[in-house]
Design brief:
Layout lengths: L3 E4 L2 H12 L4 E3 L6 E5 L3 H11 L8 E3 L3 H5 L6 H10 L4 E6 L8 H4 L4 E5 L4 H10 L3 E2 L14 H7 L6 E4 L10 E5 L5 E5 L5 H8 L32 E3 L10 E5 L12 E5 L4 H17 L4 E4 L8 H12 L4
Parallel strand pairs: 1-8, 2-8, 4-6, 5-9, 11-14, 12-13, 12-14
Antiparallel strand pairs: 2-3, 3-7, 4-7, 5-6, 9-10
Length: 327
């Protein structure tokens, strides 16, 4: 058995739709990362997603739909969330809200929660696929659980090299980090459940209210996830990462961001997130770099400091989880 990769042509999209409608799994591109798709209303198909990824079943999934109208059939959006959806969808934003009655979404997809995470991706083949299927599709990142997310079809094929899986190939993902996830507290205040491709200051500008950062963004928090991407150890290469490095040890690979100076400039192997220190470029390259680390043979890597502003918040979140002790 091995994956079946097809280009995201009309024929390829039609094949992916057939696979999903028949209860199979199909990996497909979004603007953020490749997702491992399954019919969200098919409990058996959703269970296969958890099995293939080795993903804990208490970790909820995101339902992907082709439009805001389709999203509002699944969840009840507050006025602030509706403003976000109208402005940022389609795009790399996920909203978590109360699930409406009788959506047909599998309880396994929501991890038994009363809320549901929903996104409208902007990738054209993904939109065509979702429209053709006509059902919400869960699509966590198409990698084995805990590993760096896939931004190319080849990454998906590598992680599932010994599995039968249909993969729709639309080339590299232009954004490269997952969607920002926004929920709300019981009093209606917006909550940042996962930093991502939409910076939090943009969320605040559009919604007209501050966004709260709940306790789980402290990576030591032990509570069960309320949205994807909240596990303490996640996105991890095999190598051990040391963050905010101001020097390099002889046995370490350097992960650079911007110009290299001082003791970091000592001779040694380097992989660069962005030579100019551009956060958008670094976000696009992040998971490719995390995957490349293990190909170098190094078991330790030092990561230069990255500003915690704009997309830097999402990059640092992923790096912190990648560096966390394995559970």
């Amino acid at each position: 058995m091995q994956p079946n990769i097809q280009k995201a042509t009309r024929e390829g999209i039609a094949k992916a739709a057939t696979v999903l409608l028949e209860g199979g799994l199909a990996a497909f591109p979004t603007e953020t990362v490749y997702g491992l798709g399954a019919d969200a209303t098919n409990a058996r198909a959703v269970a296969r997603v958890f099995e293939m990824k080795g993903r804990p079943t208490f970790n909820p999934l995101i339902a992907h739909v082709p439009s805001l109208v389709a999203a509002t059939e699944l969840i009840d959006l507050s006025p602030a969330m509706l403003r976000l959806a109208e402005t940022l969808w389609p795009g790399p934003l996920t909203l978590v809200a109360q699930q409406r009655p009788k959506t047909g979404i599998s309880d396994l997809a929501t991890a038994g929660l009363l809320t549901l995470a929903v996104r409208v991706p902007s990738n054209a083949p993904a939109h065509t696929l979702l429209t053709r299927v006509g059902r919400p599709i869960v699509a966590p990142s198409a990698n084995t659980s805990g590993r760096p997310s896939p931004t190319q079809a080849a990454h998906v094929a590598t992680d599932f090299a010994d599995r039968e899986l249909f993969i729709l190939d639309d080339g590299p993902c232009p954004v490269g980090v997952e969607s920002t996830i926004v929920g709300s507290s019981e009093d209606g205040q917006l909550m940042l459940l996962r930093p991502g491709a939409v910076p939090s200051d943009i969320i605040e500008q559009i919604s007209g209210q501050p966004i709260r950062r709940p306790d789980h963004l402290d990576k030591s928090a032990k509570a069960a996830p309320t949205a994807p991407g909240q596990l303490a150890s996640h996105y991890a290469p095999e190598a051990t990462l040391r963050l905010n490095a101001t020097h390099r040890n002889p046995d370490e690979l350097l992960i650079a961001f911007g110009p290299i100076s001082g003791t970091l400039a000592e001779p040694g192997d380097v992989i660069t997130l962005s030579p100019s220190g551009d956060l958008t470029e670094a976000a696009t390259n992040l998971f490719e770099v995390l995957r490349a680390i293990d190909k170098t043979g190094f078991t330790r890597a030092a990561v230069m400091p990255i500003p915690n502003t704009g997309l830097g918040e999402a990059i640092n979140d992923r790096l912190t989880r990648a560096a966390a002790p394995r559970s």
